[in-house]
């Protein structure tokens, strides 16, 4: 799934045009264009040039260009391999179990999913968390039509999925090679002011272009803190600056959240926010902002319509007027740790609206893949398998040693991958990692970094004699001092930089 | 800034001379972080009136006893005799205004205009008439602060003159049992900063730590980090809300009584986190300018009092500076504390204060371990030594060390549970310890250790 070079759109122009009509701004602009330039009584035969310049003036060009690019990408995103039966089954079971759990919590509290809540102060429990998801994945058996002995491997993921090998990774992530100057490494060295200045100037030019593939390419080398807010937006195919329409849309979501409360679901989101954010040294000033964002998110049906994957199942509720509503409208059920995906953005953006749209974009392109049970490459199971295969190939002795002390490496790395390292790295480093996730539009660096951390700690880990010792070395607090780029570079390009 | 007249070059203080050999003897009546730090250094506590090497005293002791005492050359005390010149709100204002006038008289008009970092202030009751004149001219929101108060006690806001004519008779504001009874009525009234820079919609103020080892010539060490202390509720500048003390007064002591005060976080950011946040909001250049301004507030305020302070080679002092930033990103000096709180509200707080206090004692250097030409001790940087000290070339691009990371090298005792478990059996490869113990696999990983050191100094 290499998007480094922009492709000419392969979709027929009708598909493009119909997509254009879906965007109200473009639609109106094109109508305006038609009326005033093409069909105006005073018009003379217009050359392509004048139409082009009119489009540029109206701000249409970047929008259409990005739209065409994203359409061409989505062609590639479409699944080409059929789903594995076991995985499909597991996915359905998982969705069902969440659904049932949610309803059972509702009935425990004696409330319906919407409506007056009489059980105000009753303690509430999460309906699921990372561990539950991990269990659901671990349970997936190997395909039944394969010879049992062939299924034996050392990892927890029994499915036979093909994962990228070391040389494929080196090619894919060639931008991260130490010979390239980048953020996370080079800005800290002596004499780096020239590099920083250069990076800043290039970034400003990139933003002027506002073209998705160029912004993504830029992001792969790490983004200076001042440019990150806008670059992220462009990479996610949003206009670099937020507009009035987006603001209104966000406010309408907040209104929906205020006017009609989801029992249990809202409480769980709020509890998640309260527990994680108030206790966070970095994010506690933004507790209200983050809570508002997560509640607004749950009201946004855009999410379920535009996410690459639908992770969970919404509850269909019949309203008093006969219409049905999905709860939550986003199709994303609350689980422990969900707000971790939002929190780092509170340090990037000052205001809720911008946090919201970037978060929504990141969820629909990236985080949904971490929460769906699917055998597609680039999604959670595949990422987990990639981690296990990588660690086994990079450091088989370590892998075996860990198994011998009853620690499956994936059992530690799973939350790192599932929560995109939000619970491990300190924020500056986390954002440098996320720059690359956004730049590559891909989550493959999550298992790569996980395996790299294990190999980085290899010598200490080899000395352990119990599972507890392993957990202590790799516990999340020790991650606070990790620097992402040196570790990634050493792992990917180590041994004298092949 | 012209250098002061007087001796130039590093200050040579009697290092350890006259001190009896053996462990350093300390005296203190504090039982919190400073006590832990003094003990952790392996120093011995003593109750003796005279036979101590370091005395971390309360200010009352200094007022009562110091004048009658004769100190040996090696003895060190943590207060200057008349620190009130900088710590009492009325005297600080007086000294700042005096310095400004002096600069104007000398013809240094540009420098004099820089002394605009304190909000319009009047001493009451002496300047009451002047205050009323200003109030009638500009109105606005004002804050009344009792001179001897700490931890936010007795402070209140008002926007109408009628509110303060009731103040003297209102029982709530009667000062408590204060030794300085005759000054108990004295207040300062100051224009309130009603447009603070907000983070997450919340107001905060900054606490910075400064060590002065000498006032004449002036030697100033500034700690790289500090705290941003947040209020728990969203800021609202509606004047009718001013009775909500919790929102406006950020002193930790008051915050702790709020219902939703969170014990775990203590509502603080360390200075570095704030700096990174500001960089991502405003860019590096603007942020650098703000931090530079804050450093200059510290230096200028100390310059203002350096001529009236009774210098004493036995004395050093740790000040807690309270600074607020408004929404134009201008920093304001709120007050200076000669006895900044040394209690810790969270684990992180405890560690930070202990590290800082340990560094203070290293600067004071009763054991004579320093060479005397150091510009960095622990997390402190020598910013002013009878003149500005040049920035380290490694920090090129930044005007001040404030808010940058502190490089303390590998943690010596960070091995935790794993170490304890391994104590029964020695590790197989003879010392494969902690995070810094791994042998680098590649030449590139050597860079990693260097990276940790340079990266710890902050975004570059």
UniProtKB/TrEMBL annotation, chain A:
PROSITE patterns: TBC_RABGAP. InterPro entries: Rab-GAP-TBC_dom, Rab-GAP_TBC_sf, TBC1D19. SMART domains: TBC (SM00164). Residues 222-441 form the Rab-GAP TBC domain. This is Rab-GAP TBC domain-containing protein.
UniProtKB/TrEMBL annotation, chain B:
It comes from the Eukaryota. The keyword Nucleotide-binding applies. Residues 1-24, 400-443 are annotated as: Disordered. GO terms for cellular component: ciliary basal body. Residues 419-428 have a biased composition (Low complexity). GO terms for biological process: microtubule cytoskeleton organization. Belongs to the tubulin--tyrosine ligase family. This is Tubulin--tyrosine ligase-like protein 9.
């Amino acid at each position: 799934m290499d998007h480094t070079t922009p492709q000419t759109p392969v979709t027929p122009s009708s598909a493009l045009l119909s997509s254009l009509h879906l965007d109200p701004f473009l639609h109106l602009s094109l109508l305006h264009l038609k009326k005033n330039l093409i069909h105006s009584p005073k018009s003379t035969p217009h050359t392509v040039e004048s139409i082009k310049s009119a489009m540029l003036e109206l701000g249409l060009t970047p929008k259409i260009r990005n739209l065409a690019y994203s359409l061409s990408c989505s062609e590639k995103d479409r699944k080409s391999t059929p789903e594995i039966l076991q995985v499909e089954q597991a996915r359905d079971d998982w969705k069902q179990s969440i659904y049932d759990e949610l309803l059972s919590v509702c009935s425990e509290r004696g409330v319906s999913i919407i409506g007056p809540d009489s059980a105000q102060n009753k303690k509430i429990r999460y309906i699921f968390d990372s561990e539950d998801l991990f269990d659901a994945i671990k349970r997936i058996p190997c395909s039944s039509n394969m010879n049992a002995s062939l299924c034996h491997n050392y990892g927890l993921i029994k499915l036979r999925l093909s994962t990228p090998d070391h040389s494929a990774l080196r090619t894919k992530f060639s931008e991260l090679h130490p010979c390239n100057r980048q953020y996370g490494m080079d800005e800290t060295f002596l004499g780096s002011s020239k590099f920083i200045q250069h990076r800043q100037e290039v970034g400003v030019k990139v933003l002027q272009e506002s073209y998705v593939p160029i912004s993504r390419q830029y992001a792969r080398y790490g983004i200076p803190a001042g440019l990150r807010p806008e670059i992220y937006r462009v990479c996610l195919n949003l206009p670099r600056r937020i507009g009035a329409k987006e603001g209104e849309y966000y406010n309408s979501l907040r209104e929906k959240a205020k006017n009609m409360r989801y029992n249990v679901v809202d409480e769980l989101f709020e509890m998640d926010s309260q527990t994680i954010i108030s206790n966070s040294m970095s994010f506690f000033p933004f507790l209200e902002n983050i809570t508002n964002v997560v509640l607004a998110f749950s009201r946004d049906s855009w999410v379920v319509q535009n996410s690459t994957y639908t992770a969970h199942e919404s509850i269909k509720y019949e309203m008093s007027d006969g219409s049905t509503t999905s709860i939550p409208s986003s199709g994303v059920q609350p689980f422990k740790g969900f707000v971790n995906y939002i929190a780092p953005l509170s340090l990037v953006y000052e205001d809720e609206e911008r946090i919201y749209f970037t978060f929504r974009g990141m969820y629909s392109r990236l985080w949904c893949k971490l929460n769906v049970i699917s055998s597609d490459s680039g999604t959670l199971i595949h990422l987990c398998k990639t981690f296990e295969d990588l660690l086994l190939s990079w450091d088989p002795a370590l892998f075996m040693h860990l198994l011998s002390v009853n620690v499956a490496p994936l059992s530690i790395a799973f939350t790192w991958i599932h929560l995109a390292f939000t619970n491990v790295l300190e924020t500056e480093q986390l954002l440098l990692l996320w720059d690359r996730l956004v730049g590559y539009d891909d989550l493959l660096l999550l298992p790569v970094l996980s395996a790299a951390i294990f190999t980085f700690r290899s010598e200490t880990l080899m000395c352990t004699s119990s599972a507890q010792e392993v957990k202590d070395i790799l516990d999340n607090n020790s991650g606070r001092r990790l620097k992402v780029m040196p570790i990634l570079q050493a792992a990917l390009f180590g041994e004298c930089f092949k | 800034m012209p250098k002061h007249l007087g001796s130039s070059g590093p200050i040579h203080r009697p290092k350890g001379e006259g001190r009896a050999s053996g462990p350093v003897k300390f005296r203190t009546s504090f039982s919190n972080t400073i006590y832990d730090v003094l003990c952790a250094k392996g120093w011995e506590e003593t109750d003796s009136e005279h036979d101590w090497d370091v005395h971390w005293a309360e200010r009352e002791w200094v007022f009562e006893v110091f004048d009658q005492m004769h100190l040996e050359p090696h003895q060190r005390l943590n207060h200057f005799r008349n620190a009130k010149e900088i710590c009492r709100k009325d005297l600080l204002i007086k000294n700042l205004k005096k310095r400004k006038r002096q600069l104007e008289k000398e013809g240094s008009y540009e420098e004099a205009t820089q002394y605009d970092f304190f909000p319009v202030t009047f001493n009451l009751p002496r300047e009451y008439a002047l205050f009323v004149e200003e109030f009638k001219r500009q109105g606005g929101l004002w804050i009344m602060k009792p001179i001897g108060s700490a931890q936010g006690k007795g402070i209140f806001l008002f926007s109408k003159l009628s509110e303060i004519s009731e103040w003297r008779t209102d029982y709530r504001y009667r000062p408590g049992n204060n030794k300085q009874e005759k000054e108990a009525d004295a207040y300062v009234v100051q224009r309130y900063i009603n447009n603070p820079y907000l983070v997450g919609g919340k107001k905060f103020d900054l606490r910075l730590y400064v060590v002065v080892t000498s006032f004449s010539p002036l030697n100033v060490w500034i700690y790289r980090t500090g705290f941003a202390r947040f209020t728990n509720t969203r800021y609202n500048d509606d004047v009718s809300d001013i009775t909500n003390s919790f929102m406006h007064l950020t002193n930790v002591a008051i915050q702790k009584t709020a219902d939703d005060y969170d014990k775990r976080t203590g509502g603080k950011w360390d200075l570095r986190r704030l700096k990174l946040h500001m960089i991502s909001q405003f860019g590096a250049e603007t942020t650098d300018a703000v931090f530079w301004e804050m450093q200059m507030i510290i230096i200028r305020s100390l310059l203002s009092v350096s001529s009236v302070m009774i210098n004493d080679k036995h004395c050093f002092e740790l000040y807690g500076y309270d600074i607020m930033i408004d929404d134009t990103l201008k920093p304001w000096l709120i007050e200076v504390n000669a006895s900044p709180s040394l209690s810790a509200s969270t684990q992180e707080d405890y560690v930070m204060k202990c590290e800082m206090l340990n560094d203070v004692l290293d600067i004071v250097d009763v054991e004579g371990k320093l060479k005397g030409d150091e510009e960095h001790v622990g997390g402190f940087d020598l910013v002013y030594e009878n003149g500005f000290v040049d920035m380290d070339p490694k920090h090129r691009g930044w005007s001040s060390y404030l808010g940058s990371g502190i490089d303390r090298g590998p943690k010596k005792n960070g091995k935790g549970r794993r170490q304890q478990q391994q104590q029964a059996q020695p590790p197989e490869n003879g010392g494969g310890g902690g995070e810094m113990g791994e042998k680098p696999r590649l030449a590139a990983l050597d860079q990693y250790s260097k990276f940790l050191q340079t990266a710890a100094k902050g975004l570059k």
